[in-house]
Task: inverse folding
């Protein structure tokens, strides 16, 4: 059903977020809010989740850094499950590479602290885009999925349509076009786009000017990389090979599989544990994935029904 | 750092506090370097390091000393490097006695003053004189007013050349018992892996990993780099922590080489710049000392800095001083008036931050400018800071927002507790809005001494001004008021060169200030043209320059700091990016990157080398050495200044041209590092009988009390060690972050970090509230109970450490988030070399629940003090063991052991502990 050309179409832009070199500085979160003028979204209390106080992606938070503290047992499990992925011929790690991989694990540390910057996946088959009744969501020339705030009527259908829980409606703020940047220095700028669906645009307004997204620009360790989706996916695979060669078999890719339930994602991640550990769905599936089947079945049913009616008509006549 | 093969980050949480600089560590790691993080906590730096080694706060000298011992006793030191470039072979004065001989003290200690006379630490001279007899340090009544080994050597005599290599007795075989090398060996012999386990809580396996990592990654082919920050400096032994690392790096041959060195990670942007062109009380620009009141004439002052007869670049100090005075006072500075030397203020003693606060409390300070800091939250012992400010006549706070230092008089903790009443406070407080860094042009100087120009993005809003605008205007107004005055004391102000070109907004042009700093020719053909090197500075008034080490930053009339070529690929040097002082040298002392003959130590680590065909030094960087001085040059004793340097004197700013394994002077608390416990510590110092640094600077006052240490009576009232630190999300005392929603939401509340074991011991729930009590204050914090904090077993006893970020404060108008300030827990006790406060270690109690409000909070603190028996004398004795007492104690311990064998004999010292 999925074809590779769709996932790797030329010109498709995306992110590769390599969580193995993330230092959890959250500069991506701040740069994103600064550029997009998204409001703070806080109760001003600790969220009781390590150093993570934004907790999830939403209408106001388009980059979110997860912090996960783990002990030795969990690290061993992660290493084991990653190794199994290799043995199963995990997409992205080619089998010939896998045979060269030295899978002797290094000393398992007693403790580790995972950090990972999450973002909209910009799916090949985007649920939000598929279900939007107004056409507010569109596929851009960069292969990204973007909301047009002035078209969105705030119906919220897309919120249920996203298998990652990324898109949300903005609760408060002011309705104002973003082009209006004449705010007073030293004062909190008004919040744009209240009441309509909001999510990462992969900095569409920066891309059209030839700039890279704010988060990737600000990331000090290049944990967030921006570029051609096809190149990044190859880079990501190479990085997994490299880490496996060091015995870090817990490394695996997320979103790089064009045969997944969303046809692969424009934002590819290198994770060091199961996706669930980071709060990511293990097997995301676009809700409209079954639509062709459903149409097939519905057509079959319709044909059957018509046939039945016709049959009934004729048999009835014969009986009479 | 990107060129290192192994990076040890210790005393720093680099990934969190220097995330942008950490890109070079990330790059090194991507190229295969091993990253080790030694820290009391598992932090975001540990998370991306190859290994985290947990250490007890304040025990770093034990660990580094044991590494030195390991390197020496296992013959892992870099022999050719050590022989060529260090003072290993120098002989030390025969009067010198080490801590080994004097039970934890060096020779020259005066228990009455708590200070060392460093005469016996000096080198042995061929003439038979010890250099010290010729050189009495220029010293005032206080401490911390001296200058380090790399700075000018402060001497008062006529000869500053006592350290001339040719006059020092040496033994190149390193066998003489008084060679630096042998002294080093004896001194560090007791620093063993076993001691590391006992005192630092580091296992032998972890020590072995660390020792192997640094030794395998040092030598001709590989280099190891250390990085530290205030985790090393903010101790009573701060300067000595860094000295220990310096000795280790010299022994391993990692100084002056690519991927080597010791990176001093500065606290925030341009802290390096603010020591180069200083905000420090004891320095003038370019590390020239601020004159003491005793230096009556320019000649006295210059004699105190250096002698023209000495070796190296300090010999030209007169030119640097004259050029500075000409830059400041222009035509008013003439040969006849000693270049206006008398216009400079004089020091009467140490006037550091904390001495100044004490003077405020004593009512002898009238006014206080607070710029770019928030002492009510960010300085140690916040209460002392706030009470001090309440005694001022006037206070000026310049900041982006109404920070706690501007509002303590109406909403500070002392107002809440009723200690202070607003209507009783006579301090007049002025708040001046300040421009942010994007609203002004200027420079940032970072840890590599790289000066980077920063362009103005937009005009500051409203009345906000840059520091340059503010002080320029203040100067104009003061001069206007003084106009026509014939009082001589007004001349320094009226004669100042205060004529900067203004931009279209009427503000002075910051590039013009940089040009003044760079310096220019005043007369001759080139009059008005910028100097290109400090070698062009003259002593006859024909040139001027505001900071000699920055000369060249405007060479050719071009702002060199604004150079920003695109970076392509990995270039180990990036020689065209911005400008690095001195003379655009990227790597200091880089002569040491080549061997004695001037050849690269290895192809892999080639950097600067001697080109014998051209007869000059060449390489990837500007050589930090006289360009045509051959490796085999050995000038005679009659040569002076730079010409006296030999081809092996890689450390060109040192008076003997050598890297100092042993510091014959420059430090006031010992020529070698020795481990002492912090002012407050639940742990007994088992390295020496001396518990605390004997030369530390205390401030014994009823409002600055210390907790008992070790197992002294009352020490168990404050049983836990705490340390303070910063988070990525906030900026120091919060002035630049707690007023910003985007940053505040990322870390909204004050918290402490404790281990699950400690949480269980005191009954604290994860994310519940706790109250922390020290002899100074009680604060409350939410608790992050985490495996990132691990209890350590030290001297057979479990030691819990509590982590406290210090970003929050109480009061502060319109702050998005606020909370109790960790720095309120701290007392003030200082390192004697630089007067930095010991804010990385303290003792406290922790109990579940929120703190009491109002006056009850003070009562809680007082109750704990009573229980511990804390008095103004607690922990304030300079030395813990009188001479002879040690022997008595040994006898007593022996007797106790005998008694313990005999169940019928009751020990006569039931109390124990009292010392």
Result:
């Amino acid at each position: 059903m999925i074809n590779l050309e769709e996932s790797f179409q030329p010109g498709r832009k995306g992110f590769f977020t390599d969580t193995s070199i993330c230092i959890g500085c959250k500069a991506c979160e701040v740069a994103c809010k600064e550029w997009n003028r998204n409001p703070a979204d806080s109760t001003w209390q600790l969220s009781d989740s390590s150093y993570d106080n934004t907790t999830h992606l939403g209408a106001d938070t388009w980059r979110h850094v997860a912090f996960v503290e783990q002990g030795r047992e969990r690290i061993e499990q992660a290493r084991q499950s990653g190794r199994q992925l290799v043995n199963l011929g995990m997409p992205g790690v080619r089998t010939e590479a896998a045979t060269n991989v030295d899978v002797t694990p290094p000393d398992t540390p007693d403790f580790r602290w995972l950090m990972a910057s999450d973002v909209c996946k910009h799916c090949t088959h985007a649920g939000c885009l598929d279900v939007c009744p107004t056409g507010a969501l569109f596929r851009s020339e960069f292969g990204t999925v973007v909301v047009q705030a002035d078209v969105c009527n705030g119906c919220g259908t897309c919120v249920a349509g996203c298998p990652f829980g990324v898109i949300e409606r903005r609760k408060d703020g002011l309705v104002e076009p973003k082009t209006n940047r004449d705010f007073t220095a030293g004062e909190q700028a008004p919040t744009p786009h209240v009441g309509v669906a909001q999510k990462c645009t992969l900095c569409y307004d920066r891309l059209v000017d030839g700039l890279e997204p704010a988060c990737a620009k600000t990331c000090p360790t290049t944990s967030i990389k921006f570029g051609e989706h096809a190149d990044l996916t190859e880079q990501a695979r190479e990085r997994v090979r490299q880490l496996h060669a060091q015995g870090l078999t817990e490394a695996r890719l997320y979103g790089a599989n064009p045969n997944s339930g969303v046809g692969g994602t424009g934002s590819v991640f290198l994770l060091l544990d199961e996706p669930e550990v980071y709060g990511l769905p293990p097997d995301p599936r676009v809700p409209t994935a079954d639509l062709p089947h459903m149409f097939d079945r519905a057509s079959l049913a319709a044909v059957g029904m018509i046939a039945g009616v016709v049959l009934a008509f004729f048999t009835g006549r014969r009986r009479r | 750092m990107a060129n290192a093969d192994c990076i040890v980050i210790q005393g720093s949480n680099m990934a969190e506090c220097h995330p942008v600089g950490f890109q070079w560590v990330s790059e090194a790691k991507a190229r295969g370097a091993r990253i080790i993080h030694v820290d009391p906590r598992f932090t975001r730096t540990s998370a991306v390091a190859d290994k985290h080694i947990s250490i007890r706060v304040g025990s770093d000298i034990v660990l580094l000393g044991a590494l030195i011992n390991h390197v020496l006793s296992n013959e892992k030191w870099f022999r050719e490097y050590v022989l060529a470039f260090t003072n290993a072979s120098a002989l030390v004065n025969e009067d010198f006695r080490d801590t080994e001989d004097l039970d934890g003290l060096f020779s020259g200690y005066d228990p009455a003053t708590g200070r060392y006379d460093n005469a016996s630490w000096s080198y042995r001279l061929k003439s038979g004189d010890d250099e010290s007899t010729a050189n009495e340090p220029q010293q005032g009544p206080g401490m911390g007013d001296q200058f380090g080994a790399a700075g000018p050597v402060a001497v008062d005599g006529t000869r500053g050349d006592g350290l001339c290599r040719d006059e020092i007795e040496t033994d190149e075989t390193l066998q003489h018992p008084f060679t630096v090398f042998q002294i080093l060996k004896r001194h560090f012999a007791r620093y063993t892996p076993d001691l590391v386990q006992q005192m630092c809580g580091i296992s032998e396996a972890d020590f072995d990993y660390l020792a192997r990592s640094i030794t395998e990654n040092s030598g001709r082919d590989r280099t190891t780099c250390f990085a530290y920050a205030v985790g090393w400096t903010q101790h009573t032994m701060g300067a000595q922590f860094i000295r220990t690392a310096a000795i280790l790096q010299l022994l391993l041959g990692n100084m002056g080489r690519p991927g080597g060195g010791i990176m001093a990670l500065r606290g925030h942007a341009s802290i390096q710049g603010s020591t180069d062109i200083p905000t420090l009380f004891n320095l003038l620009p370019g590390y020239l000392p601020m004159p003491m009141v005793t230096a009556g004439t320019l000649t006295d002052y210059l004699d105190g800095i250096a002698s023209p007869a000495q070796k190296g670049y300090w010999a030209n100090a007169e030119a640097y001083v004259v050029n500075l005075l000409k830059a400041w006072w222009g035509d008013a500075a003439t040969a006849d008036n000693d270049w206006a030397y008398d216009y400079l203020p004089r020091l009467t003693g140490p006037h550091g931050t904390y001495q100044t606060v004490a003077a405020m409390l004593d009512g002898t300070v009238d006014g206080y400018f607070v710029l770019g800091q928030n002492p009510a939250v960010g300085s140690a012992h916040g209460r002392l800071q706030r009470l001090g400010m309440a005694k001022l006549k006037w206070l000026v706070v310049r900041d982006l927002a109404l920070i706690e230092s501007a509002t303590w008089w109406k909403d500070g903790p002392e107002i809440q507790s009723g200690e202070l009443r607003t209507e009783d406070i006579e301090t007049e407080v002025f708040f001046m809005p300040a421009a942010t860094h994007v609203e002004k042009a200027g420079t940032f100087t970072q840890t590599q001494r790289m000066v980077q120009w920063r362009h103005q993005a937009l005009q500051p809003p409203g009345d906000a001004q840059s520091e340059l605008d503010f002080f320029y205007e203040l100067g104009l107004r003061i001069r206007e008021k003084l106009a026509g005055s014939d009082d001589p004391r007004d001349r320094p102000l009226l004669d100042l060169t205060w004529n900067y070109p203004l931009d279209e907004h009427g503000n002075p042009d910051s590039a013009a200030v940089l040009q003044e700093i760079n310096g220019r020719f005043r007369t001759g053909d080139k009059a008005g043209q910028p100097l290109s090197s400090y070698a062009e500075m003259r002593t006859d008034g024909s040139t001027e320059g505001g900071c000699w080490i920055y000369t060249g930053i405007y060479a050719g009339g071009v702002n060199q700091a604004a150079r920003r070529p695109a970076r392509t690929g990995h270039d180990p040097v990036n020689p065209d990016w911005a400008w690095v002082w001195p003379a655009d040298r990227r790597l200091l002392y880089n002569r040491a990157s080549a061997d004695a003959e001037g050849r690269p130590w290895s192809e892999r680590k080639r950097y600067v080398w001697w080109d014998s065909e051209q007869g000059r030094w060449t390489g990837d960087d500007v050589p930090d050495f006289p360009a045509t001085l051959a490796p085999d040059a050995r000038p005679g004793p009659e040569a002076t200044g730079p010409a006296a340097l030999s081809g092996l004197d890689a450390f060109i700013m040192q008076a003997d041209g050598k890297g100092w394994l042993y510091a014959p002077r420059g430090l006031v608390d010992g020529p070698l590092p020795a481990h002492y416990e912090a002012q407050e510590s639940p742990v007994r110092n088992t390295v020496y009988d001396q518990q605390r640094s004997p030369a530390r600077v205390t401030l014994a006052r009823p409002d600055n009390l210390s907790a008992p240490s070790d197992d002294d009576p009352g020490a168990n009232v404050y049983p836990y060690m705490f340390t303070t630190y910063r988070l990525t999300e906030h900026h120091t005392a919060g002035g630049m972050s707690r007023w910003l929603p985007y940053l505040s939401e990322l870390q909204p509340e004050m918290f402490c970090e404790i281990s699950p074991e400690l949480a269980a011991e005191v009954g604290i729930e994860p994310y519940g509230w706790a109250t922390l009590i020290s002899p100074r204050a009680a604060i409350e914090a939410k608790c992050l109970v985490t495996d990132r904090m691990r209890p350590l077993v030290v001297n057979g006893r479990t030691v819990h450490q509590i982590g406290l970020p210090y970003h929050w404060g109480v009061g502060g108008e319109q702050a998005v988030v606020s909370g109790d300030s960790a720095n309120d827990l701290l007392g003030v006790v200082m390192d004697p070399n630089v007067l930095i406060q010991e804010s990385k270690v303290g003792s406290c109690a922790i109990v579940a629940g929120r703190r009491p409000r109002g006056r009850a909070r003070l009562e809680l603190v007082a109750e704990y003090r009573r229980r511990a028996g804390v008095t103004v004398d607690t922990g304030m004795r300079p030395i813990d063991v009188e001479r002879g007492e040690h022997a008595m104690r040994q006898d007593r311990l022996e007797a106790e052991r005998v008694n313990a064998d005999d169940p019928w004999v009751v020990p006569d010292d039931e109390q124990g502990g009292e010392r």
Q: What stands out?
A: Residues 4-285 of chain A form a domain with the Alpha-Beta Plaits fold (CATH 3.30.70.20). The CA atoms of residues 302 and 314 of chain A lie 18 Å apart. The longest strand of chain A covers residues 63-71. Chain A has two domains: 4-285, 292-320.
